[in-house]
Amino acid sequence: MADDPCTTRGGGLPRLLAIMDRLRDPDTGCPWDIEQDFASIAPYTIEEAHEVADAIEREAWDELEGELGDLLLQVVYHARMGAEAGRFDFHSIAERVAQKMVDRHPHIWGDGDRDKSAAQQVADWEAVKAQERRGRTLDGVALGLPALMRAVKLQNRAARVGFDWPATVAVLDKLREEAAELVEARHTLSPAEVQEEMGDLLFVMANLSRHLGVDPEVALRGANAKFTRRFETIEDALARDGRTPMQSDLAEMDALWDAAKAGEKSS
C-alpha cells in the first residue's frame, strides 16, 4: 500500500517504530519477533554494539551507517517490549536520556563554568553520577560489559574512594606474585581453582593497564589483529608451496612468524 508507513521510503525513525509495532503485533506480526523478550534480545544488542566498535576500529566508514542502524533497531526493539509491558516507550527513553545530558552539563545548560579542561569535566561528570547513584560505590557497573572493561570500571570506582595501589610498581609486584602462584600451584589445583587464579591474574593485568593509561580492550583488540595478520602471512607463505598449516610444523611456522614480524618492522 502506498500509504503504509512501514513501506514508504523516507520515513526515518517514525517508519522504523511503525515497522517494529507491526512485527510485534500479536495477530498479524512475525512469529519469531512476537516470541522474543528482553533476555532473548539482549545478546543481539551486545553483538550489534561490538559490530559498531569493530567498524570504527577498522575505519570501515561505509559499513558504520548500517551497523549503527542495526544498533538503533535494538533500542527500538527494547522500547516496544517496554511499551507492551507498560514500563516505558521510545519517547520516554529519549526524554530520560535528554534530561540526563542536560543535568550532567551544567556548564552548557546552567550556571556552571565552561572554562574547564576535558579532564575536569569528566571528574565533574563522575561526581554528578555518584550523586545520582547514592548507593554502594560499585553499584551500576553493568554485568553485561566485556569482562576487561568491567574490571577497569570497578577499579576506577574503587580508586575514587581511595582503594587503589599508590604506584604502578606495586601493581607490577602484585602481577608477579599472582603469576608465580598460578605457575607453582597449577598441578595441585582443581580446574575451578585454576580458573579463579587465572581470573585474579587477569584482574591485576586490567589494573596495570589502568595505571599505565592503556585501555585493555583496545590493547587486546590490537594484539588480536596483529596475531591474525601474522598468522595469515604464515598461511599465505605455505599456500605458495601448495600446503596448509596442518602440513607444516611448529619450527617452520615459527620461522615464518619471525619473518612476518621482521617484515612489519622494516615496512
Automatic annotation (TrEMBL):
SUPFAM superfamilies: all-alpha NTP pyrophosphatases
InterPro entries from the UniProt entry: MazG-like_dom (IPR004518), NTP-PPase_MazG-like_C (IPR048011), NTP-PPase_MazG-like_N (IPR048015), NTP_PyrPHydrolase_MazG (IPR011551)
Domain spans labelled NTP pyrophosphohydrolase MazG-like: 36-109, 172-231
Key words of the record: Hydrolase
Swiss-Prot/TrEMBL GO biological process terms: dATP catabolic process; dGTP catabolic process; dTTP catabolic process; dUTP catabolic process; response to stress; TTP catabolic process; UTP catabolic process
Domain of life: Bacteria
Any Pfam family the entry gives: MazG
EC identifiers of the protein: 3.6.1.8
Catalysed reaction, written as an equation: ATP + H2O = AMP + diphosphate + H(+)
Protein family: Belongs to the nucleoside triphosphate pyrophosphohydrolase family.
Protein name: Nucleoside triphosphate pyrophosphohydrolase
